[in-house]
Amino acid sequence: MAAWFCGRCKVKMEEVDDIQIFYGEVDLPEAMGIRCPGCSQEYLLEEYVINELVAAEEMLEGK
Ligand SMILES: [Zn+2]
Q1: Residue 26 Cα, ligand 1 centroid: separation in angstroms?
Q2: Are 16 and 34 in contact (CB under 8 A)?
Q3: pLDDT tens per residue across span 3-30
Q4: Considering just the CA atoms, what is the radius of gyration of the chain in Å?
Q5: Distance between CA 52 and CA 55 in Å, rounded?
Q6: d(CA 44, CA 19)
Q7: Which pLDDT tens digit goes with each residue over 37-60?
Q8: How far apart, in Å, are the Cα atoms of 20 and each of 3, 11, 49, 55, 59?
């Protein structure tokens, strides 16, 4: 697994699974991502986000 480093702090980021994401007005479930222990900057794991957004869009369109 590749290590992620914060661009600001140059420290290794921690993998977390409780990142809050918002897509328009939609409050999505907490997502997998990485968080810097120094500055608390969060980044989403892109692949996961794309899958979640597609699922959310399908859900919205189907209502
Ligand atoms: Zn940082």
Answers
A1: 27
A2: yes
A3: 889 989 999 999 999 988 777 888 888 8
A4: 14
A5: 5
A6: 7
A7: 999 999 887 766 677 778 888 888
A8: 21, 22, 11, 16, 19
